[in-house]
Design goal:
278 residues; 12 helices; 9 strands; binds calcium ion; EAL domain-containing protein
Length: 278
Amino acid sequence: MKEDGKNSYTIFEPSPNSSGIERLTLENSIRKALRLEEFVLYYQPQIDMLTGRIIGTEALVRWNHPTLGLVPPGKFIPIAEETGLIVPLGEWVLRTACIQNQIWKEKGYAPMSVSVNLSSRQFSKQNLVKTITEILLETNIDPQYLELEITESMTMNVEVAIEVLGRLKELGIQICIDDFGTGYSNLYYIKLFSIDRLKIDQSFVRDIMTDSNDADIVATIIAMAHNLGIDVIAEGVETKEQLDFLRSQNCHEVQGFYYHPPLPVEQIEQLLMKEMEI
Ligand code: C2E
Ligand code: CA
Ligand code: CA
Ligand code: CA
């Protein structure tokens, strides 16, 4: 990316003590990219390891930049969050993911869920529930097939969270805690927020085979989820050994490079088409 010259260097690597000009440049580029529809969603399959079938996908945004190519979210999501542009971008992601999931359903593929990452800026926004209600109506997606991923570290007012999550649950959509284990794992809130699923953070999964602490943490999270009657999925699964460990702990839902990386729409459709033949 640096070879692209001075401009792209400053656009994507604003120094922390910069005057704000670089940030402003990036902010304006994101705004323009939204208008020009340069963002694109990739979908990473979530697999039931017992059947090998796709049970859902996670929508992950990329910026299809005209000169830089595919820019990963880590390069622009933080600025989008800082500037508040994550609100329109997040709404675009939600709508696009729901439309796509509905297209797949109408093409006759086995029903599957779509998971969308939510940032706390979107969450605190008064009209999140209104926006999602509109998107459900507009796209006709069955709400049980839409899952929102929130993180434990999201800074939010507990009262607001209870109210908003309660209203989202009333709409019939699913709530998953992403990166589980990296923030405050408050069991009380898991109950209070009526969480449907926990996603074990990839940092624990990565070291399952080499760090017995991480293996213990993963086993504990799985057991706890089972006890609470909550679904559990492991992310960042890359090897057969990790898969076998998760199977031995009765965690059968997985996401990771072992099966598939995030893929563009056409490649997901090829996978779904192959599944129909089975
Ligand atoms: P995340 O939600 O934790 O997403 C999982 C990340 O892990 C993705 O990176 C995915 O490509 C990567 N990954 C998947 N399987 C494996 C694996 O087996 N091994 C390894 N090492 N990595 C794996 P990606 O797509 O670069 O996304 C990074 C982060 O950007 C996401 O982390 C999420 O926090 C954020 N993000 C992406 N899309 C959105 C969005 O639409 N809205 C918001 N608010 N955040 C998003
Ligand atoms: Ca996620
Ligand atoms: Ca995650
Ligand atoms: Ca993460």
